[in-house]
Structures are given as C-alpha cells and as structure tokens.
Amino acid sequence: MATLHVELVAVERMIWSGEASMVIARTTEGELGVLPGHAPLLGQLAEGGIVTVRTAEGEDMVVAAHGGFLSVTDRGVSILAETAEISSEIDVERAREALRRAEETGDEPDALAAARRAQSRLRAAGQDA
Amino acid sequence: MASNLRALRRRIRSTKSTKKIFSAQELIAGARIVRAQARVEASKPYAREITRVLSALASSASLDHPLLTERQDARRAAVLVITSDRGFAGSYNVNVLRRTEELLSLLRQEGKEPVLYVVGRKGETYYSFRDRPVAETFTGFSEQPGYADAQRVGEALIATFTAGMDDDETGAGADGVLGVDELHIVYTEFRSLLAQIPVAKRMAPLEVEEVEEFDYEREDRESGVTTGDSGVPTSYEFEPSPDALLDALLPKYVTTRIFAAMLESAASESASRRRAMKSASDNAEELAKNLSRQANQARQAEITQEISEIVGGADALVSAGADD
C-alpha cells in the first residue's frame, strides 16, 4: 500500500517523521483528509486545531499544533508549527491548569491565545475542553 | 623583606582563585557551545520547510505584500543588534557593535535615519553610556534564546514596519505613529569554533532567501526513492487564498530569521567566551608561576640573610671570647 512520508516540524526541533497512510487536519477553511497521491496543497491550520496522523502501522497519532501550516507535495506531507505536541507527551493536568489560568485572566489577546492552545492540547489528549 | 614575601604570597593566592573562576567559565561555555550548536541544527528543518512553502507561494501570490515591496524614498530604518547579556566574552560584543556602527553610518549616508533595537544587556549599556537613543531593548535570554523571545522581538519590529507604511516627509502619516521603512539585523554568524563573524543583513523589505540549499536529488539517491519529475514547478492548491496565506506566513518567516540569528549568536557568544576564558586562565597560570618564582627567591634570600646574621653573631662571640 502506498504511504505518505510525513514530517512534523516545530520551530525548535523536528518532532516526528515517518510513514503514514493518512493525515487529517483542519485548515482555516475546514476539515481535510490527505491520502497518498493527494494534489499539492498549502494550507493554514486553524488556531487551536489538532492534526491526526494515521501511521503505516494503523495507529492514530494525535498532535496539538499551534500556529501552523500544512504543505502537501509529491514528496509527502509537512506540518509546520510554532509549537507542537504529540498526545502521548501532553500533561493533561498542566493543560487544565493552563486553561483555568487563562480563563481567569480574562479577554486579553494573550490570554485568549493561551486558552485556545490549552484547549487544543486537551482535545489532542482525548479530554473534553 | 618579610613583608614583601607576604605580599607576594597574597598575590599568588588571589591569582590562583581567579584562575579557578576562569577555568570554570571556560568549562561552562564549552558545554553551552555543544548545546547551542545542537539547537541551531534542530531549528534548521523548520527554516528549510518554511522557505520552501514561501517559495511555492511566491510563484502564485500577487506579491504586493508590504513586507515584500520596496518603498520609495525610505526615510527611517530599524536596526536590530544582537549582543550578549554578560561580558567575559572577549571581543564578541565589540565586534558586533563595530559592525553596527558601520551599518549606521552607511544608512545615514543613504539619507535614512537609523532606529536602534537592542538585544542583550551589553548593547544596552553601550548605547545608554553614549547617550544614544534606543527604541526598545530586550534582555535576559542571550545565552539561551527561546522562540517566544524571538516572537516578542519580531512583533515589535513588524509593528513599527507596518506603522511606517503611511509616513511622509512631514512625519507620521494617518496612524500618527512614526514607523520605519526598512528592517536590518546585525548578529554574529557561527562559522566554526574558531571563527565567528559579525554580519549585517536586511530583513525587510525581504527577498525570500534560501536558508540552505536543499539537495533533493542527493536525498533521493541516498534513500533510493525515484521521483523522476524534479525541475517541474508544482502547482499548488491553497487554503485559504494565496494572499491570505502570505499574510500569515511572512511575519512568521521574519520571526524565524530573527530566531535563527539569535541561536547563531548564542553559539558564537559561548564560543567567544570559551576562547577568552581559555587565554585568561592560561595567563593566570603563567602569572602564578612567575609570582611563586619570585616568592621562592625572596624566601631564600631571607634564609640566607638569617644564616649570615647567625654566623656573623657567632663570629663576634668567638672573637670576643678570644680577647679574654
């Protein structure tokens, strides 16, 4: 079966790279699934969104990606994010704490962005936000 | 004589303890270089990808974004200088600041008024001591810069650049804020452990610059993949529109370049510091050696003197006894 070569790159380091059978992401325009052989595409990921990578072994890897872009070429998929976390690495307690703090702070743009980031971390970890 | 010996011993002690500080600094800087270099390497995939995405966009979008268009009769130019927070780094800061002065006088010759943005406490004190106005300073992270720091700097620079769009001869334009028409950055490039070179670059209006030539064909050969269609420009689908994507992407690109410059500077800073501390501890070693030689001479001279005094005294006693 054909696979996609996926690279998940954050600003400070390459987070994951490997083969996948499907990538599901939400751009600012809407939900989107990428299968092998997809036409070249550039998209901006929605704020506080999550990206699901179905690996070649059939496991789902869920990633919380903030401030990111998705680029699909004939060479594979690259996901660029300012920060990105794989669900297994997310500390649920800390994310909840961050969300609570951000909500208490009120309506400043910084606090809202922090709240959105915390929500996407929680969603990626499979919790309600 | 005895007091001389005591003074020498005190100097030896203080030289030795200073040397300990120098060699500790040397070791710390040595460990930091390795980490800083690893961070420079780790940040490259992102820089490479964002450059690739941007070049793909550049062929499709209209390219009249303010960050890309050259402004007629540019009047003010922002200069971002990256220095260190701490000293003990040899000529690191001096070199960056000298390069900055060159850039500033060049800008003035071109009739542009430079506006300074400074990273690092050393640069801050340099300009405040000379009573030169600085628009904004950012300190406290020169050795281990995070992306959030680069974002803060990037936001400030892009804000002032955007504010400069409507400025005219009489001053600030419609928005009432005096902005700038160009962005420059001065930082230290890390070539190797022995060579760190201060460089000045223009960030905006920007020409999309290949951060690192990426050799696809070599990668294909190595991984055994054959794509066979290299050289044909790919036509992309865009979500949202190319222009909206460009709007979102360009500020991030500028921030990425600032971040890369900060990481390179951090590596250079540690390398300079290690070199400076190495020669300082060598010098301290040398000084301690010379001083202990002098101290030994003084000690021997003191003993010789005591012996000759005793011998003299005994001789005097003997000759006094012979008289009886």
TrEMBL record, chain A:
It comes from Geodermatophilus obscurus. Keywords: ATP synthesis, Cell membrane, CF(1), Hydrogen ion transport, Ion transport, Membrane, Transport. The gene is atpC. This is ATP synthase epsilon chain. Residues 111-129 have a biased composition (Low complexity). NCBIfam families: ATP_synt_epsi, PRK00571.2-5, PRK13442.1. Residues 4-84 form the ATP synthase F1 complex delta/epsilon subunit N-terminal domain. Gene3D superfamilies: F0F1 ATP synthase delta/epsilon subunit, N-terminal (2.60.15.10). It is found in: Cell membrane. Coiled coil: none annotated. GO terms for molecular function: ATP binding; proton-transporting ATP synthase activity, rotational mechanism.
UniProtKB/TrEMBL annotation, chain B:
It comes from Geodermatophilus obscurus. Produces ATP from ADP in the presence of a proton gradient across the membrane. The gamma chain is believed to be important in regulating ATPase activity and the flow of protons through the CF(0) complex. This is ATP synthase gamma chain. Pfam families: ATP-synt. Residues 224-233, 291-300 have a biased composition (Polar residues). It is found in: Cell membrane; Membrane. GO terms for cellular component: plasma membrane; proton-transporting ATP synthase complex. It comes from the Bacteria. The gene is atpG.
